[in-house]
Write a structure and sequence with these properties.
The structure holds 2 protein chains of 2 kinds.
Chain A (H helix, E strand, L loop, with lengths): L1 H27 L3 E10 L5 E3 L17 E3 L7 E5 L5 E6 L3 E3 L2 E8 L9 E8 L8 E3 L4 E2 L10 E2 L5 E9 L10 E2 L3 E6 L1
Parallel strand pairs in A: 7-8
Antiparallel strand pairs in A: 2-4, 3-12, 4-12, 5-10, 5-11, 5-14, 6-7, 6-13, 8-9, 8-12
Chain B lengths: L1 H13 L2 H6 L17 E4 L2 E7 L4 E3 L5 E5 L7 E6 L3 E3 L7 E4 L9 E8 L6 E3 L4 E8 L4 E9 L5 E3 L2 E3 L6 E12 L1
Parallel strand pairs in B: 7-8
Antiparallel strand pairs in B: 1-4, 3-11, 4-11, 5-10, 5-14, 6-7, 6-14, 8-9, 8-11, 12-13
The chains are: A mainly beta, B mainly beta.
């Protein structure tokens, strides 16, 4: 009987010892190993616009204190990421100058209000809150979505975004003059 | 006759005692089969090829990676290697490179090979398991190896230079070595 007790004890001990490596393997999931491989890509920047000109009323004259929208209010102009850098879009406007004498101009307002020889300009991004417009000023500003306040980004090559413009003519101006303004869209690495 | 009778009686009296003497000890047979347990370790767990350009071959040293079978393992093992598609770390669903299965790169398709230190040739890594070492590895064994990467063809060209669609980006993949008891 004494011999039996000793044997049983020995067997239990052996099982415990044998189980130790088993537990370690299970804890470490040791039947596979993995390595993470990373590669970094080169960057290049570039954007394109598929519109270069907006003739507000075509060959017709514009009226005082009147709002005009591009014929496609949300998708008049397409911005395309021609590079591969994640870029944020910026926009700035300028005074509209008489082509015959650039010293004569309509000032681009900074409040959205028009006035005597003061006009206003806005943009609307396709997919943004319906009929929402953001003011364009002479200060370079990040283009942002009205719906969430996030900047307008084009993350990778061939990503596109579309927008339209809205313009409010001055309350007073001298007619018969062709006025020209430039809008600048810039891409900055996000 | 009287004496014989006494002896016979004594023998008969002892008969029940003989089996009792045979049962004074017993044997127990214990049978155990050692489990096949093993563990492998692959190092390093991270590796960067740095900046890569389209359609180019990039290699590591043949001692860059090391697979070791834990000395505490109890059996020999067979090993297998697998790869997977590479994804843009910032947005895996938006951009990826497929791991080629025919050693040919393409637009958005890359090729990966491995080569054991001391061996002659590179062996392609695919999404399916490929034998990593032709023999078995035992406890304490290790194998060093290197990788060769052929990047995809360019997504677009600008100014005569090819680029991927995502710039200044990290594209990430995993190489896994698995083992089964031989």
């Amino acid at each position: 009987m004494q011999q039996m007790k000793i044997r049983v004890t020995t067997i239990l001990l052996a099982i415990i010892l044998a189980a130790i490596p088993c537990l370690w393997v299970m804890a470490e999931d040791g039947n596979s190993g993995q390595t993470t491989i990373t590669m970094n890509t080169e960057s290049v920047m570039g954007i394109s616009l598929d519109q270069a000109e907006w003739r507000v009323e075509g060959e017709e004259d514009v009226s005082l204190n009147t709002t005009y929208k591009t014929d496609l209010p949300a998708s008049w102009c397409t911005i395309t990421n021609e590079g591969n850098t994640n870029v944020t879009m910026f926009i700035k406007g300028d005074d509209a100058k008489w082509v015959s004498d650039p010293s004569k101009k309509w000032t681009l307002g900074s409040t959205g209000d028009n006035g005597k020889n003061v006009y206003a300009l806005w943009y609307h991004i396709k997919g943004d809150t319906a009929d929402s417009y953001t003011l364009v000023t002479k200060d370079l500003a990040s283009m942002k979505w009205v719906k969430d306040g996030e900047p307008l980004n084009l993350a990778k090559h061939d990503d596109t975004q579309q927008f339209g413009l809205k313009l409010l003519t001055p309350t007073q101006f001298i007619g018969g003059r062709t006025m020209e303004a430039n809008i600048t869209l810039s891409a900055v690495a996000a | 006759m009287g004496i014989m009778g006494i002896l016979l009686a004594g023998i008969l009296a002892l008969i029940p005692c003989l089996p009792a003497t045979a049962q004074d000890s017993g044997n127990i047979t214990i049978t155990m089969t050692g489990a096949k347990e093993f563990s492998i370790n692959l190092t390093p767990v991270n590796w960067s090829f740095g900046i890569v350009t389209p359609n180019t071959v990039n290699t590591t040293d043949l001692t860059q990676f090391n697979l070791t079978v834990a000395p505490t393992s109890t059996c020999a093992i067979n090993t297998y290697i697998t790869g997977e598609d590479a994804v843009w770390a910032d947005d895996p669903g938006a951009y990826n490179w497929t791991l080629s299965s025919n050693e040919q790169n393409d637009i958005k398709a890359y090729v990966l090979w491995f080569k054991l230190d001391g061996e002659e040739s590179y062996i392609p890594i695919t999404e399916g398991p490929t034998s990593f070492y032709s023999g078995t590895l035992g406890p304490g064994d290790s194998k060093q190896f290197g990788l060769k990467l052929l990047t995809p063809q360019p997504d677009f060209t600008k100014g005569g230079t090819g680029y991927f669609s995502v710039g200044s980006a990290i594209v990430q993949t995993h190489v896994t070595i698995s083992a089964v008891a031989a």
